[in-house]
Each structure stands twice: as structure tokens, then as C-alpha cells.
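Q: My labmate handed me this sequence with no annotations at all. I'd like to see what the chain might look like in three dimensions before we decide whether it's worth expressing. Could you predict it?
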Amino acid sequence: MDLRTDLHRVRLGQGSHLRVWVDCTAAAHPLVLRPIIERLEARGHEVRVTTREYGQTLGVMERLGIPYESVGRHAGASTARKAGALARRSLALARWARPQRFDLGLGHGSVDLAIVSALLRIPSVQMQDYEYAGLQRQLAFRVARRVMAPEAIPVDAMRRAGAKPQKLFRYPGLKEDYYLADFEPDSAVLDELGLDRERTLVVVRPPPETSTYHADNPLHERVIERLRAESDVQTVVIPRTEAQARKAAERGLSEERGPGKLIVPQRAIDAQSLIAFADLVISAGGTMNREAVALGTPVYTIFSGRMGAVDESLIAAGRLRPLRDAAELELRRRDGEPGIQSPRDPELLVQGVLQAVQ
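A: Here is what I predict for the chain of 358 residues:
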């Protein structure tokens, strides 16, 4: 154990406050990390948050009221451009973080945070609920002192992903059960989007086209065409990137209302409330699928990559349905009241984070 680690332990033992750096690199991350940030600050720890320009990430940060510093931007799907952007952002973050003298770093698969933490010898924690996220995430796991993952992912799978068993902090349920624990759906989002509360509402999330684990997904296009053909269905498409939003607009999927039209929000919205009030969610990713499960909304997955253990467990339990053919979509009004189904106390995650410096 090095001197820096010893100092961390001494400071915690004396009840001193920590300086914590949190890096949010995608739109889901501020949602996931918000309750941890709030609880760390409530304990008197100082938390600084960085982010980058990517899709609606900055908009979500602002909607949640999380102060942040924006450093860099996403480079798109090109591996070469990603490597260049990673080097530039990591260098900028290292310059920013060095004088801050952070005691702890926290990310949700942030490779930039992993690199800077290794360079500056900052103990780090990484959260992840998908075990096939690629080489960069393996690097983040190897650098981290703690890796927090759902119990649904086997220990051996996390070891292959770069997280040794002694690093793991495994938590029950879904990460969505924790960050949605205090969530109360707000129907204002329906009015904001001009939705008819008497018509069937479907929410669609496009594929993660810029991610290394993405595979071609022609089913997504067929689902869109099926929904456009349904005159009694109103569909909201929540794009991941500006490119997806532009593509939707070019196809005529603008915010024009009416039967068979698709609604594409032009800014960050209260997507969790929209999901809670929706009759159906269809997502080619992961987090929005699991948000629907956590909120009791019927959901299909059209994810085209390798299915992770969390989603496999939800499919086995009948809580998530895989869709193979757009013709098999069941479009009808849902039963039951919207809201979180199995809330879990985020304090457990806070304890897992702090284990990295105890």
C-alpha cells in the first residue's frame, strides 16, 4: 500500500472531507450518479463534476441542476477519431484535475477518468452493468480500485471484462432501482410534447451507433415504419446524438403532430416521466429498457449487440421482451399506474463508492 492510500485512510478515519471528481460522459450518467453525488455532498464531501458534449448529456445535466465543467466532445463512431479525442480530453482533464488534488474519482465506464486517475494516482471507482463493453472499458476496470456491478453479472464475466473479484462491489437489482428510488412521474412532459392522453403512446430509443459494441440494426428501421403506419399510435423518438435527430428530420419525422407522425424532441426532456406514462417502450440500447422495467412499462428490446447478463435475466423473468419482427409488436394501452416498482436505497451504492478509500 502506498503513502497516498495511507493518507486516504487516515483522513477518513479522522472524519475529514473528501474531494471527489465525477465524470459523466453520456446522457444516462448524470441520472445514474445524481443520488450518489447528492449523498456525498450531504456528508460534507466536495464534489466536482465534468462532462463532455455528446447528444443530450449537457441538457440532462442542466435539467437535473448538476453544476458541471464541460471538457471535450464525443468523436463519433470512427476508432481513429475516438482515440484522438480520448487523448485530447484526457490531457485536458489531467491539467484540470492536477491542482484539485482529488481524493477519489467516480465514473460510469469513463475511460478518460481511468487514464487521468492512473496518471495522478487518484483512487477511482467505475460503475458498469454491461460486461461486453470492449477494450477501453477493460482498461477502466483494471485501473479502478472498485468496480460496481449488478449481482446478475457473474463474477467470471466481470473478471474477463478486466475486474478482478476482489475489486467487485456487487449490488442487488438494477441500477435504475436506485436512481429512480425517489422518482415521481410528472405528466407535464406529455403537455410539453403536445401528446394526446387518449391515444396509445410509444417511446423509441435508436441504436447506440457510436458505441464499439453496436451492430447493424435493420429491425429499428422496420419498427419505425410499422409505427408510422399506425394511425392510432403516437410515437416519441428520443435520439442519442444530433446526427440521429437530423436523420429523423430528413426522413420527415419532425415534431409535426397527427396520426402516424413521429415526435422528435429537440432538447433534453423528462424522459423518465415520458417512459412512466408510455404504453410501450422499444429500445435498441440498455438503460432505457431497464428504466421501463423499473417503472413497470411494457418494453421490447431490439438491441443488436451481444446480450448482457442483466438483460438476459430480465428476459428470463418475463420483464423484458426481445423483438425479432416488427409485425409482432403488440400496440395497446397499458394497465396500472406509473411509478417505480422496486425502489432501492442509493445509500448502498454510496457505501460501495467510499470503499475505494477505506
